[in-house]
Amino acid sequence: MEVFLLQLLNGLDKGGAYAMIALGLTLIFGTLGVVNFAHGALFMLGAFCAVTFNALVSMQQVTLHPTETTAWGTPVEIKTPYVELWFGDFGRFLVEFSVPVSILLAVPVMLLIGLAMERGLIRHFYKRPHIEQILVTFGLAIVLQEIVKIFYGANPIPQSAPPSVDQALDIGGLLGFPPGEIVYPYWRLIYFLFSAVVIGAVFAFLRYTTFGMVVRAGMADRETVTLLGINIDRRFTIVFALAAIVAGLAGLMYTPILSPDYHMGMDFLVISFVVVVVGGMGSLPGAVAAGFLLGILQSFASLNEVKQIFPGIDQIILYLVAVVVLLVRPRGLMGQKGVMET
C-alpha cells in the first residue's frame, strides 16, 4: 500500500505537467487546426522565466568584513542581495520565493510570445497541410532552444523551492500508517494542486464566460460565428496566447523538480503529443485525462519489480499505450469521429 500511494502521487504530479502541456496543444489544434511542434519550447521558455527572475533578484552586493579574515588572511566577503538591501524582509521573500513569484513575470512574457508566434508565423499556415505546420513549428522550436542555449548555456540550472516547502510531508502519518512510512515532497504536492487549479480555470473560462462560449462555438462552426459579425480570428489569437501561458506556467513551476536546460522542451514535446493522441485530437477533457493516466502508468512502470519482469518498460510504456489505443480506437479515447482518423 505504501508503494502504491507513493507511485500514485508520483504519477499525479508528472501527469499534471503532461496534462497542462497537452491541454495547450489541444486548444491550439481545436481552434486553429494547427499542429504546433513549438509548444514544448513554450514549456521551456516558461521555465527560463523562473531562471531569469531568480538571477535578477539574486544579484548581490559584495562587501568586505571589517575584522574577519579567511584562512589565507584575506577579508571575508559579505554577499547581500540588492533587493534585500532595498526592501528588507520583502526582498528576502522575493529571493526565497523566486519560483512562485516569477509567475508575475512569466504571464505577460508568455502572453507576448504567444501573440508574436501566432501573428508573426502561425497565422500564415492555417490552411496549409499538417506536415508543413509540423516542419515550420519544429524549426521554430529548434531556433528558440538554440537562443536559450546561447544566453544560458547548455548545462541545467537548478532552481530551489521556497525553504518553507522544501521539506517532505508525512502523508502516511496523516492516513494512519506508521510515521515515516510514506513521505512526499511538499513541492510535488503543490505542483499537482497548481496544475489542477490551472486546468480547472481554463475549463471554467471556456465554459462559463461569454468569450469562452464564443470560442467553443467557433471551434464547432467557424463560418457561422463569422457570419454573425464576430471576429473569431482575434479570439483564436487570444486562445493561442492563453495556451502559451498555460505551457509556460507548467514549465515554470516544474523547475524545482527538474532543473531547466535548453533541451527540456523537446523532451516534453514528444510525450505531450503522445498524450494528445491517446486522449483524442481536439478533445480537451481527453488531453487532461490522458495526461494523468499516462503519468500514473509511467510512474508504476518505473517500479523495480516491474522492470525486473519487463526490462525497459518504463521507457516505452507511453508509446505502447499509444499504439494500442490507435489500433483499437484511432480517434483516441475521447476524440471526435473524423478528427485525425481514417
TrEMBL record:
It is found in: Cell membrane. It comes from the Bacteria. Keywords: Amino-acid transport, Cell membrane, Membrane, Transmembrane, Transmembrane helix, Transport. GO terms for cellular component: plasma membrane. Its main location: membrane. GO terms for biological process: amino acid transport. PANTHER family: ABC TRANSPORTER ATP-BINDING PROTEIN (PTHR11795:SF442), BRANCHED-CHAIN AMINO ACID TRANSPORT SYSTEM PERMEASE PROTEIN LIVH (PTHR11795). This is Amino acid/amide ABC transporter membrane protein 1 (HAAT family). The lineage of its organism: Bacteria, Pseudomonadati, Pseudomonadota, Alphaproteobacteria, Hyphomicrobiales.
